Backbone:
């Protein structure tokens, strides 16, 4: 089974596009993570037993590699 992590990347996001209204998501997360912009990354099999929520990891982000905080592990990614 493929494992993914959902993470918050440690970089300010500059929005260079016009924001369009989006319909509300099917599930409403009322926790603190609801306001964060998160990204999903594939977790290599050799790291599955090591990486857990709260860990700092290095992730590819555009042409850079940046630190991110792991929020949760998941078995699917939206993209």
Residues:
């Amino acid at each position: 089974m493929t494992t993914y992590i959902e993470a918050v990347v440690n970089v300010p996001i500059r929005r260079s596009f016009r924001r369009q209204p989006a319909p509300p998501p099917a599930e409403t997360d009322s926790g603190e993570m609801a306001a964060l912009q998160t990204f999903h990354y594939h977790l290599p099999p050799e790291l599955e037993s090591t990486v857990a929520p709260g860990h700092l990891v290095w992730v590819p982000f555009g042409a850079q590699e940046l630190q991110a905080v792991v929020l949760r592990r998941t078995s699917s990614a939206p993209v």
In short: Residues 1-10+36-79 form one domain. The longest strand covers residues 64-74. The chain has no helices and four strands. The CA atoms of residues 54 and 70 lie 5 Å apart.
